Amino acid sequence: MTSQFDRRQMLAGAAAAGLAGALESQSTAQAQTKSNIAVRIDRDLDAIDPAYRTGPWDGNVARTVFQRLVKQKPNSAELENDAAAEITQTSPTMIDFRLKPGQMFTDGYGEMTAEDVKFSFERIGLAPEPGRQAGPYKGDWVYLDRVETTGQYAGRIVLSKPRANLFNIAIGDVSGCIVSKKATMERGIGHNTKPVGSGPYQLVSMEKQKGGVLKRNAAFTGAKPFFDEIAVRFISDPKTTELALRSGELDFAVLPPSVAEPLRGVSGLSITEQPSIAYLWIGMNMEKAPLTDLRVRQAIRLGLDVDQMLLAAYNGKAPRLNTLLPPQILGHWKNAPVYKRNVAEAKKLLQEAGQTNLKLKLLILNQPVYQNMALVARALLQEIGVTLEVDAQEGGTYWSAGKGDTGKNLDLFLLRFNGKHDPNFIMQWFVPTQIGDWNWQRWSSPEFEKLFNDAAAELDQAKRVQEVVEAQKLMDKTSAFVWLTNEVNFLAHRSWLKPSAVPGWIDWQYDSFGAATS
Amino acid sequence: MQSDTARYVLSRLVTTILIIVGAMLLLFTLSTIVPGDPAVTLLGPQATPEYAKKFIEDMGLNEPVPIRLVKFFGAVLRGDLGIDVVSGRSVASMVGAAIPYTFILIFSAIGLAVLLGVPLGVFAATHRGSALDHALAFMSVSFIAVPSFVIAIFLLLIFSIWLDWLPVLGAGNENDLFDQFKRLILPTLSISAGWIGFIARLVRTSMLETLGENFIRTSRAYGLSERLVTYKYALKNACIPTIAILGMGIGRLMTGAVFVEIVFARPGLGRLIYGAVSSRNYPVVQGSVLVVVAIFVVVNLIVDLSYSAIDPRIRRGAQGAAK
Predict the structure, then answer these.
(1) Which alpha helices (H) appear in B1-90, and where do they start and end?
(2) Which in A92, A239, A370, B199 has the greatest CB count within 10 A?
C-alpha cells in the first residue's frame, strides 16, 4: 500500500503497540486450540448490509463478511491493504485504487471488480436518484463526488473537497465495505440478513433473537482466520452472560464492571480492562433558564466531584476524562483543566446569579452505572444549594428527549456516545446544525463550527491537531460540559482466547480472534 | 338444545373478535402517547434526517391513528402482519418463528403445573391437617410469592453452575431434540414453580368443598369406593375452577415467559415483543401483540366452552341471564 498519510502512522504508534502487548501479557500460558467459539452481543442483529446497519453489533459482523479496500491491522488503528493491491492519494481530492484480482463473492456472485467498489461507495454517499431516499450513513461519505472505474480492477475516488478522515471513517470502516452489486440488486432488502461478501467469514445463519453464525469463507484470499466458526449470540441480560461464561457456553463478552468483577479468579477465564473511546458527560441545556447564565453552569461544574462519581459507578476503574477527546484520539487536549470541587466558589457563583434554592432535573438512562453517578451528583449538588431530581428513563424515551422542541425542556442530562478513531467524528454532534438532534446542550457556536469544518478538510496533521484543540477550548469556556469518563471495557474471555479490536474496543475484529500465547 | 349451544358459541365468538379489535385500538392509542422516536432509537445518531423521515414513513407512523388502524386491520385480513422495516423481514415470519418456542415453554409449564399441582392438591385435601399438608401449604405459598425470574436465576446457579447438569443459553440445536429438551427444563421449572403451588392450593380448597357436598355423601352411602368417589366424582367437580384459572393463566404465563426468555436468552414471543417495545419497532409490536391477544382470547374461549361442557349449569346460567 502506498500512502502519504502521516496520521495513519501516528495512530499506529499511539494506539496499537501497547494494547496488543497488554492483551498478550494477560493471556494464560495454556494455549489451546478450538475450532469454534461463541461471542456475545447485547443487541440483536438486524441488518448486515453495510448501508443499513443499525449499530456496531451489525457493523462488527459486516467487517468479517465484507472486504474493504483497506482495513485496520489486528488490535490496531493502523490501516493495511485488504481488497486493494494498491491505494494512493494522488491529490487532496483524488484516491486511486487497484484491486487484487481473484477475490470472489460467496454464493456464486463472481469476482470483485471496480464496478462493485463504485456501487458500494456511491449507494451510501451520493445524493440518491430522484424518487429514492438517502441512506442512513450518507455522512460517512461526505464530499464524495463520484467513483470512476478506470479498468476491471482499477478505479478512482473523487471528492468535491479535501477530507482528513476519509480513510478512517469511510474507506477503512464499515461504510467502506465492498458489496456485490449483482447480489445487492438481486436480493434487495434480503441482503440485510443474507449478505454476500468476499471477506474471511460468511454469515451462514441469522435469526431474530438468536444472533448469527459465521463460518470461515474457504474462498477468502487473505489471511486465514484462526477459528472455523464463530457463533454471535444475542444475550441481552448481563447476569445470563456471566452465567454462560461460567458454564463454558460462551467464550467472549464485554460486561459492565459490576458483573465482570466477580468473574476474576474463575478458573479458565480472564478479565481484561481496556480504555474505551466512548465518552460520557453531564451536559447542560444552554437555552433554558437559569442554565442560560454562565455562572450557574460554572457553579454546577464546581459543585460536582467527577472522581467521586466515577468511584461510585466504576469502582474507580474508569479513567477520568477532562475534555471531549480521549487520549487515544488525534487532537486530545493534554493540558485541559482538571476541575476540582469547590463548594464555596460554587455557592458564591450561584449567589451572584441570584439563584438560591435552585431546582433542576437530571435525565439519565435507567442503567445502574448512570443511576449510581446520578445519586452521587444529587448529593454533591445538594451541598451547594441545588436540588436535583433524577429522571431515569428507558432507552426509547431517553434517546428522544433531546430531539426537536422537546429538547428545549431539558435541564441537565447524562449522555454517552460511542466514538470512532477520528476527532471530527466525535466533534460532529456539537455543531449548531445538530441542535434539535444530538446537540442537547443547544450550544450554538459559529467559531466551533468553523474549527470543525477546517479540521475536517485539513490534511496537515499538526494544523488539524491545533484546530481540534482550539475547538475543545471553546467547549470548556461554555461550562456546559462536565466531562466524566471515556469508560473502560471489561473483556471477559477464555484464557486461551485472544480477542482483537480496533483500540477503543467498540469495533471488534472477529476475524482476528485467535489463541493466546504465553 | 343444539341451537342454544350454537347461540352461546356465536356470542362468545363475537365477544372474542370485539376484544381483539378493542385491544388493538388501545395499543394504537398507547403507541401515540408513549414518548420515544423509533427512528432515533433504532437508527441511532448516525442516521441522516432524510433517512430517519423515510423510516418513519415506512413504518406508517406519519399517518393518523384511525387510518393506521384501518390499514393494519385491512392488511391483517389479507394475512399480512406487515414488514419489519429494519431487517426487511415479514412480521408474520418473525412471529411464526418465535411462537413455537413460547408455546412449548408455556404448555410444558402448564403441563408440569397440572401434573404435579393436581395430585398434590388432592393429597393435601384428603390428608387435611397432616404434617405433609402443612409442608405443602408452606412450599406452595413460598413458590407463589417468588417471581419466576428469581427462581430462574437460582435454578441456573444450582443446576448449571454448581452441578453443571443443564445448559444456560438458548433453545438448543434445531436438529437435536435431546438438546432442546435439556434447554427446556430450567425455563419450564422457573415458570411452573409458582403455578404448581397455586394449582395445589386451588385444588385442595375445591376438593374440600366438594367432598363436603351432598352428592358425595350420597355416593358414599351407595357404597362406592373412596377412590372412585374422590378421583371420579369429587375431582371432576373440583377441577372446574382450575380449568377457568388455567385459561386466565395463559396471559400471566406469557408475562412470566418474557422474563424467563430474557434470563435464558431463549427466543420467543415475549422476548420479541420486549425487544420491539424497547426499540419502538411498532410494526413488530403491533403484529406480535395482535397474535398474543388472539391467542389469549381464543384460549379463554376454549376454556369457556369446555367449562360449559363440563358444567351445563354455566351455559344455562349465561342464557338465563341474557334473557
Answers:
(1) 2-33, 38-43, 49-59, 65-77
(2) B199
Residue A187: list chain B partners with CB under 8 A.
Answer: none
Q: Say which of B40, B53, B262 has its CB closest to residue A403.
A: B40
Q: Based on C-alpha coordinates, what's the Rg of chain A?
A: 24
- The answer to whether residues B87 and B43 touch, using CB atoms and an 8 Å cutoff, is no
Nearest to B40 among A243, A250, A400 (CB): A400
Buried b (16+ CB within 10 A) or exposed e, B192-222: bbbbbbbbbbbbbebbbebbeeeebeebeee
Angstroms from B308 CA to nearest CA on chain A: 40
Other C-beta atoms within 10 Å of A262: how many?
12
Please enumerate in sequence order all residues whose Cβ is within 8 A of that of B303, keeping only pairs 6 or more positions apart, or say none: B243, B244, B246, B247
Interface test with B, best of A208, A250, A427, A429 (most B CBs within 10 A): A208
- Beta sheet of A94-99, edge-to-edge order: A84-91, A94-99, A154-159, A144-149
Residues A222-237: pLDDT tens digits? 999 999 999 999 998 8
Q: What are the two backbone dihedrals, phi and then psi, of residue A147, each rounded to the nearest 5 degrees?
A: -120, 125
Taking the C-alpha atoms of residue B4 and residue B8, their distance in angstroms, rounded to an integer, is 6
ipTM value:
0.75
Which chain B residues in 247-266 lie under 8 Å from chain A, judged by CB atoms?
A: 262-265
**Pairing between β-strand A94-99 and β-strand A252-255 as defined by DSSP bridges:** unpaired
Interface contact flag, B36 A397, Cβ < 8 Å:
yes
Could you give the CA distance from residue A345 to residue A190 in angstroms, rounded to a whole number? 60
Question: How many contacts (CB atoms, under 8 Å) link A and B?
Answer: 137
Which of B49, B94, B161 lies nearest to residue A243, judging by beta carbons? B161
Phi, psi (deg, nearest 5) at residue A389 = -100, 125
